[in-house]
Amino acid sequence: MTLHLPYEVIYHMLRETQRDTSGFIDDDPHRLHRDRRTLAFCSLVCLAWRLPAQALLFEGLTVSLGSTLDGFLVFLRSTPHAANAIRSLRLQPGTMPYDDGDEDTVDAEIHGVQLWEHVQQTSSERLLSPALLMDIVGTLHGLTHLHVEHSVFLGWPGGHSLPTRPKSLQSLNLFGNAYMPLVQPGSQPFDILSFFKLGQLTVAGNHDAYGSQQHVPPVAVLAILDNRPPVVSDLRFYGHDCFLECNLRHGGCDVDRLTLYVSDIAPDVLDVRSLLEHYGRNATHIHLDIDYSVEREFPEEDVGWQTCSLAACTQLQLLWLSWEIDELRPDQNHAEVYDAIVGSAPRTLSELKISLSSPHRVTKEEFEPVASCLAPRFVQALARFPEIREVVLTVTRAFDYDDCKEMIHGMLPRAVVESPVFRMATKPSGHPIRNIDNL
Fold this sequence. Notes:
alpha/beta; 12-stranded parallel sheet; 14 helices; disordered C terminus
């Protein structure tokens, strides 16, 4: 008697053989370590195994830019079973732009045809048409994750219709891309965020050819208009970004959760002010990763963290501050930063998290001034926010957790220590934002 297993049973059997054993849990197939060779052989075993194995093979694809992208779209349209299996798509240059002499930016003095020729000559393997991108995305009905890195986004080509409705994705990651919307004759700038409805948006190091959107000539920006701003449930920002700047200048979007990381670059702090003002209006969760070196690099400029305000974040429920403390002696500036940020939060705040990390081992003596700075402010937080349900201090393994806990408890009133509202926790070492937990 021949046993015929349903497609779903075979699919999950094969999927179990490809399960990630690293312990990292993620819905993005690119995170899983697929044995593609084994899956290819499985697809040849019999007809019953072919489609389930091919579905796993195509779940997560990495495609090089250039002439192959047009061929990829033709392949998708001619092979619907493969297109329907793709859940995660990564687009990147055939060769990554790290070689000496390969410039990510173009001199703003070069214009028109000269700029277009320059782009064609120096970045031919990185060019990406947004219309072609959206044609590909529109063909992938099961797509949930899109990652585009180190590409040159051209303008929207004249005569090509915009998408009629936003594409829903679980995540969109844009890393290290260049935005050159006016270099190709007849093309127009576009607001890429209006093309999507996103669960999570992560942007890092995307820049435009002019250095700032403020220098882009006043040309109409194309966007999908359905009388509602773009929706992003979770926005993660790692420094100045031209796509966010373009979106802000043309209406912004609705954001529920904000994660903002800023290093020692003064303009990035200015960006954070703008993001908090515009994207923070509807945000219920905000995570700020703080680097104090900006004050040391630009001591005469009004760019410090203490200039950031949460006054516009009227819906805020959870505030999470991550600090990598290099100089373990909080000066008056540290206190001013904390007071400015927490002091400007709405009184309806219900959760406050403070995460401390350090690049080196922290002794008990080194932690004492940190504890002296934070302990009285935890007491103030409990008094300031009548609806507060939880105040959490988290330290990485660079700190001795038991010593830290004993010291903090010794500086707090007994009523606070015994309160169910305040607690301490520990987490793995490393950059706080790299080990981000679910808020």
